[in-house]
Write a structure and sequence with these properties.
Structural class: mainly alpha
Helix content: over 70%
Length: 28
């Protein structure tokens, strides 16, 4: 269903954001 697809995409985007934040923290 479209809802599940949107949810999975949202989770993937959230994972990318977390990875970016962790990478930024590692640089500090």
């Amino acid at each position: 269903t479209p809802g599940l697809v949107r949810l999975s995409v949202g989770l993937e985007d959230a994972g990318d954001l977390v990875a970016d934040l962790r990478a930024a923290l590692d640089k500090v």
